[in-house]
Each structure stands twice: as C-alpha cells, then as structure tokens.
Amino acid sequence: MSQAPPDPVPGISWRPLGRDDAERILELANASFRGDSQPYVMTLAEVQHTLADERIDLARDTIGGFTDDGALACFGAARPRAVAVRRRIIYQDGEVHPSFRRRGLGSAVLSYTEARSAEILAQHRQEQPDDGVPAYLEAYCDERLADRIALFERRGYQPIRWYTDMRRDLADPLPDPAPLPAGLELVGWTPELDEAYRVAHVTAFDDHWGSEPLTSAEWHTRFTGSPMFRPDLTVAAADEVGRLVAYVIGYHAADDTAVTGRVEGWLGQVGTLREWRGRGLATALMVRVMRLMRDAGMQDAKLDVDTENQTGAMGLYERLGFRPEHRSIRWARQA
Q1: 147 or 307: whose pLDDT is higher?
Q2: Range of 193's domain?
Q3: What CA dihedral angle connects 41, 44, 45 and 49, to 10 degrees?
Q4: What is the CATH number for 185?
Q5: Among candidate residues 305, 306, 251, the one with its CA nearest the CA of residue 43
Q6: Residue 41: which of 326, 254, 302 has the closest Cα?
Q7: Neighbours of 306 (CB within 10 A)
Q8: 333 inside domain
Q9: Same domain, 319 and 175
Q10: Burial class (CB in 10 A: 0-12, 13-18, 19+), 328
C-alpha cells in the first residue's frame, strides 16, 4: 500500500488484494448481489480477468478488509481510465459483504481509494502539469441502494447520469432483418477484425457524453477479452473498403440463469458512425443478433442505455420491444 491503511475496525485487518484472493472476492461479490437483490452472478473467470487488468496496480490501488479467519469482509480499488481527453476519471470501486455492513467499512474503503486517487493524480500533474484536463472521481450504483447513495452524498459526489437496464422476451415475434444499404456487407467478429471493431466503437461514441478513447488493452479488458464475450453473437456492417460503420457486440452471462431463471443474452455495445445514422443500421444488426440469440437457446435479450442518450437510442430499443427493468446512477466529484 502506498498510503496508510484505513482506520482500525475491530476484527478487521487491512492489506492489498492479490490474484490469490480471487475466490474470496467471488464469494463477497455474489453475497452482495444476493443481499441487494441484484440479478447477477459473478464467475471466477470474471474475477481473475479483472485482477489481471493492467490499469490496476494491485499492491497500491486496492485494499481488502479481512476477518481473523481470513474471510474477505470488504474491498476497494482506485481504477483509472487509460486515456483522458475530456475528463480524467478514476473509478472508486468497492463492496462490503452484507454481514459486515453498518460498521464503517464502506466509508473506510472509500477513504482509501480516494487517497490513492489523489496520489495518482498528483503524480500525473507532476508529469504533465499543463494538460488542462479536469479530473473526477466516479462511481456507479443501483438506484435502490440507499446506504451507498447516502455515502456518496456525504462525500460530495453528485449524480451525473442515469442508466437503464432493458429486457426483451425473445419468444415475442422478431421482425425480419432488413437488408443492409447498398455498398455494405455483413461481417462477424474474428481476432483479425478486433482492432476494426475498437476503431468503430471509439469513432461512433466520440460525440457521446462522457466518452473517452479506448486503448487496445482497455478494449480487450472491458469488451472482447471478457469471459462473457460471444463472437458468435457479434456482427458489423462493413463498407466497400472494409471499414466497420455499425456494429453490435454480444455477450452471455450463463451463471445469471441460476438467479433469473432465464437464459439471457446481452447486446453490450451498439454503435453507428455519425454519417451512417438514420438508415436503420442499428435496427438491422440488432434484429440479426437477437435472432442468433434465440437460435442459440436464449430466452431474453438485455441491454443497458444512457437514459439521456442524444441519438435516440432508448426510443429505438423500445420500438424493438425492450422494456425498462431498473436503473443505476453514475456519481462524480471533481478531484
């Protein structure tokens, strides 16, 4: 740890997380999902993937609170975005096991990640003192988690964005997939096309609120390197020179079925380059992916959307039969 550990809490000892803590993190995360009535199940592969994220220095950016018998009661991480053009963001990740809540552990973890974030930003300002990019500490939480919301509010965080999870029953009739505009062809995902997908995503989202470029490593960590990524549920439209102008990237979280009782596919990223918008490409590709999901035995298609998306995405999804389920909040405090 680069700064002092959190304040003492009876029965809790503090140390950084390591890769050998993966199973302890898994147990805590799933206990929290159950305790908070969240319809998700974390897998060991997902935890191991997260611990391998090159953006995180486990020895300095993470903290774990352990009981006397070695169980993990809480954890936190300061997770910086790799690139900052409009906003320099450091996410404040953290979780407390339901059995150990209301003991000040969440506050202690957030204090640690905030202090570590201050160190990261101070080092950056020494190295690039005149870049002029404002810095923010950010976090997400479900809008139903009153205790977490109260903690963020006490620390001066403000809600800056709401995101809506939406669901569509794939047993309901799907429209026929519309033909692509002249000059475009349908392509799937291959390792050789991964960089083209990244470039298309960065380009398509450049005019979206809060978007920042993604490095190849960050793209792989967050998207196509995820254990849930499904190449067979991923499609794009390519122009005559092979540039991807629209895409849908699919995922499947198989373990969530144990909680939801449904087999779900996720349309994780949906994007269209600005000059190709308004031609029905997103609809055409989404319909194709939902048909692939249905043919693969999935019962529901899910996605999440920025409620204030300026491209009209939420209206598009509603026209395709998606209905809102619940919302999460993005919080920020200028650093």
Answers
A1: 147
A2: 164-327
A3: 100
A4: 3.40.630.30
A5: 251
A6: 254
A7: 17
A8: no
A9: yes
A10: middle
> What does the alpha-carbon distance between residue 215 and residue 79 come to, in Å, rounded to a whole number?
15
> What confidence tens digit (pLDDT) does each residue in 165-199 have?
999 999 999 999 999 999 999 999 999 999 999 99
- If we measure between CA atoms, which residue out of 99, 83, 199 comes closest to residue 133? 83
C-alpha dihedral (332, 328, 170, 320), degrees to nearest 10: -60
- Chain position carrying tokens 């003492």: 8
Is the domain of 133 the same as that of 191? no
d(CA 85, CA 81) in angstroms, rounded, equals 11
Q: What share of the chain is helix, strand, coil (3-state, %, to 5)?
A: 35, 25, 35
Helix (H, G, I), strand (E, B) or coil at 21: helix
Structure tokens at 261: 């009782």
Supply the pLDDT for residue 201. 97
* CB neighbours of residue 267 within 10 Å: 27
How many angstroms separate the CA atoms of 240 and 244, rounded?
Answer: 10
Instruction: Examine the domain organization and report whether 227 and 246 are in the same domain.
Output: yes
Whether the Cβ atoms of residue 109 and residue 96 lie closer than 8 Å to each other: yes
- Tell me, yes or no, whether 147 and 178 share the same domain: no
Q: Does residue 3 lie within any of the structural domains?
A: no
Using the 3D structure, point to which of 133, 156, 179 is the last residue of a domain. 156
Domain boundary at 92, 126, 156, which? Answer: 156
Helix (H) or strand (E) holding 75: strand 72-80
What are the structure tokens assigned to 61, written together? 């950016």
**Per-residue tokens: 52:** 């391998």
Same domain, 122 and 52: yes
Do 234 and 288 lie in one domain? The reply is yes
pLDDT at 2: 59
